[in-house]
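Here's what a typical entry looks like (O-antigen ligase family protein):
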Amino acid sequence: MARALRYIFAFTLIVSVVWPTGAAIGMGLSTAMSILLLIFQKVKLNVRLLWPFLGYFVLLLSSILWSSDAQSATRGVEVQLSFLLLPFIANVLSATGYSRADLYVDLRLTLLVSFVFMGVDAYNAMAESSFIESIAGSQLSLPFVHRAYFMNYIVLAIFIWLSSESKHGVLDWVLIASMVLMLWVLQGRMNILAFAAATCLGGFAAVVKKSRRFLFGSLASLVLLMVFYVADFIPTRFDEDVAKEVQTSDDGVPQSNSRFFLWEMGASVWGDNLLLGVGVGDVQQELNNQYEEVGYEFALIRSYNCHNQYLQTAVTIGILGLLFMISIFLLPLASAIKNRDILLLCWVVYIGLAILTESYFVRFHGAFFISGITSLLWFTTRRA
């Protein structure tokens, strides 16, 4: 049954980027298999590691009670169901011997499937333009995954590879260089900055731990990013017309996606509901009401979220929910420092910075990947 769980989890991760329904099915089957392992093989759970995720989800679920839109509330909870299920699955996986090497194998297959779809997207775009022009403005889209969300998969693969102690050849280094290039091509700016910051911190930790491979790899990654920046061979993802729209404002209200203004709007909504938030069912409507009140038509038409997961959580379930969410990152960070776990350290720092400009948990892929990977890396830190 342990092997069956590994295969099901691998399937879940691989299809997550192209078939969200399949990932949801895989998550359900993994949960069922984990329960069977608990019953028949007496697998012991480390319950202490589960409480931050459980506390966050229980509070999110409870917010249905103070949400006026029950249907939206139910849908919002369903999107984040992974915060309840995946830490449980990760706990059982780690208890039955699932390792980070196994995760890397599954992740490589996931990226392989992803690149096939991305290659088709780029090929189709090239029918009307050059390859470089096809990248500008393109998500290099997977069917259901935004660029910023997919970049998390790539960053994790780089971190796992750099922290691995197994021997790799020249082709492996070429692969990692290609991954760094892909980060630049996708142009998720906060993801790139978060990756650079986490890599710098990881390089410092590598000096302390005397990990030459991670130190060299982190320095090489930073140099590559600088070369890509200086070369400027990938054009901006905004075309000229959109760029002009971004720079235009009217009476102090942006006419485009201004994250600072979105944060101001979110903070205003939270200010009226500090303790418990507005509830998972009403959060988007309350934000839209705020946009309408100040005349922020660009955000209102698109029903923009807060574009900051910390603020999004605070608006949704208040300061208590925010504390639970922060604990999901702070506790693994403490474990990483205690165990000198460079991989966990880099991942937590990276994702903690990346969510400053994206509300990842409002989409299935964001909640799925962050809850699953963070818990799995945390639960396996003693074997790192």
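The longest helix spans residues 309-339.

More examples are in the samples folder.
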